[in-house]
């Protein structure tokens, strides 16, 4: 059996900057607050030596279709009032929760971070258009790891909805460790996504890791997840 661990990233309000020169990632203005940009710190596009025996790097067109289809299906489920779980539930309908579209730049940055085989969040991944949120999941097993991209999205990240208090949807947002992946997935003002993926074997374990970057970032302190429909 594979063991799966998730990570999420929260964004604090009040540090948005409208113009970021991402032709030089080392000069991204918001990173002066957060820390060095991933593309500045890690200049090689190849997996790091930490990854050992690499079996797969990157996402295919089929993977991209899965990522978008699953995310948008789940967003629509919540927006239409068909998610009955919660603590308590059900989750309220949304006035608007647009479909996510693929952003290659977010995917490239996510892949660069995935290629480091460091199971944690990078310091900064922002681009010229917006600040960027992040969900990470990793699975490991003593045998060949069959965890799928759909498993990560549905069973690891979105499943946190069972812990989410539906009464908090239209309240000023406060991060909760047990629901941070779910709230990023259904954050209404997030419209773009790009993900990286790597599968490798270290000295003891077969590992798969997926990094998804979201823009504009969700999980923003004191903002609202989405507007509730009447």
UniProtKB/TrEMBL annotation:
It comes from Trachymyrmex septentrionalis. Residues 1-21 form the signal peptide. The lineage of its organism: Eukaryota, Metazoa, Ecdysozoa, Arthropoda, Hexapoda. Residues 62-222 form the SCP domain. Pfam families: CAP (PF00188). Its main location: secreted. InterPro entries: Allrgn_V5/Tpx1_CS (IPR018244), CAP_dom (IPR014044), CAP_sf (IPR035940), CRISP-related (IPR001283), V5_allergen-like (IPR002413). This is Venom allergen 3. Keywords: Disulfide bond, Secreted, Signal.
